[in-house]
Amino acid sequence: MFNLVENIRTKIDNGVRISDAEALALFESDDLLAVGELAALANLRMNADKVYFNVNRHINYTNICVNRCTFCAFSREDEADEGSYTLALNDILERAAEASDAGATEIHMVGGLHPDLPFDFYLQILAALKADSPQLHIKAFTAVEVDYFARLTQQSPSEVVAELKAAGLDSMPGGGAEIFATEVRKQICPEKISGERWLEVTEQVHNGGLKTNATMLFGHVENFADRIDHLSRLRELQDRTGGFQAFIPLAFQPDNTRVPAARGVGGVDALKTLAVSRIYLDNFRHIKAYWVMLGLKVAQVALAFGVNDLDGTVVEEQIGHDAGADSPQQVSKDQLVELIRKAGKKPVERDTLYNEIKTY
Ligand code: V47
Ligand code: SF4
Q1: What is the CATH number of domain 20-359?
Q2: Which one of 3, 210, 231, 352 is at 20 to 30 Å from 31 when CA atoms are compared?
Q3: Where are the domains of the chain?
Q4: Of all protein residues, whose CA lies closest to atom 15 belonging to ligand 1?
Q5: What contacts 297, CB < 8 A, 6 or more positions away?
Q6: Minimum-distance ligand to the CA of 189?
Q7: What pTM did the predictor assign?
Q8: What's the gap in Å between 246 CA and the centre of ligand 2?
Q9: Distance CA 141, CA 125 (A)
Q10: Which residues contact 176 (CB under 8 A, 6 or more apart)?
Q11: Is 355 a residue whose pLDDT tops 80?
Q12: What is the pLDDT of residues 49-90, one digit of tens each?
């Protein structure tokens, strides 16, 4: 372990990236603090002691979804399914207006793949949001939705992106990536687009001029090699496009899901995964601890493990909470500032594109 750590420290100091074998050795190591220290070093070089957060609101317009991934407790089959819903345009606008009044700079909007809603519905939402609250950055949809819209309208992903952008879309979140490996996808999301397609669509989104994030859903049936394969494909795409802003490992929440034997993610695995991601993804500036899935306490500790972003105030979250996340629904800006300060870091409110709004 000593040699491994010293070799990687030298690599970080010299800006040389680590190999897949080194990433595996870090995942397999029991020395959590040594892995964390390396991640903290890599982060220090990129971000000094700044930790970013934003004031945002999540809106999930529908939970009806044709994919029905087995890890997803949020989705419903159809309108007859108990608990299914689809928000009307006015509901969406009302939530966005409330967010704007509360100082939000971003709307994060994703939903299920609804079998009946036409592509125009999504364009209308974007146009109406822009007309109503032009100051809000709209971060919405993922490669999964873009592929779905492309199939609905018989267009290429690039054409879909151009239409979404013209209607008001400003960037995209990083969902739908899960774990790219085919064997894993067969078990947890057999109906979802392949990992290869997710990467191909995302490349077209980047080439179309929109930034995105990337996620990795971990702690279900995948092994360390699957995680490293996932990171490797993201690092390679980022080399080509530079279109990713943040990487967000999402800790799997097992309640109400259909993933047999999954027990959820412990603190050690969560911190190690964030740390290895920071060390391996040397071309991602931001590693985000999404407190909704991690809980606020682990997210705070993650700031000593290479993390430099805590996402935002969120306000209303369904995907993680339907699957048993015991984090609160929302946090205030003051809570985020205090949490970051108490971790010995400098809180910086950012907008979606990481322009700094205020340093605390
Ligand atoms: O793609 C679904 C995940 C994602 C569960 O880009 C689950 O800034 C854990 O992508 N346990 C959507 N995770 C959320 C997402 C996201 C969240 C916050 C910020 C950003 C960003 C993106 O949630 C889905 C899926 O991977 N998910 N079910 C579950 N049971
Ligand atoms: Fe649908 Fe997304 Fe849930 Fe999969 S994760 S079932 S695509 S809403």
Answers
A1: 3.20.20.70
A2: 231
A3: 20-359
A4: 175
A5: none
A6: 2
A7: 0.98
A8: 21
A9: 12
A10: 142, 143, 144, 145, 192, 193, 198, 215
A11: yes
A12: 999 999 999 999 999 999 999 999 999 999 999 999 999 999
